[in-house]
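lol ok so funny story. i was supposed to be doing the assay writeup but got distracted and ended up predicting the structure for this chain instead. priorities right. anyway since i did it might as well share w the group, maybe its usefull for someone
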Amino acid sequence: MASKKTRCQICGHHIWAPKSVERGIGPVCWARLQEEGASEEA
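and the output, tada:
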């Protein structure tokens, strides 16, 4: 069976991790969004 893969909605890189696929955003872009959100709250 082929592994499920898709692309990050932000940068277009292929993502395979189940959590990333669920979000539609890769781990690097997700971390960047979390950092931006934290800096906006400060």
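Residues 27-41 form the longest helix (15 residues). Residues 15 and 29 are 11 Å apart (CA to CA).
back to the writeup now i swear
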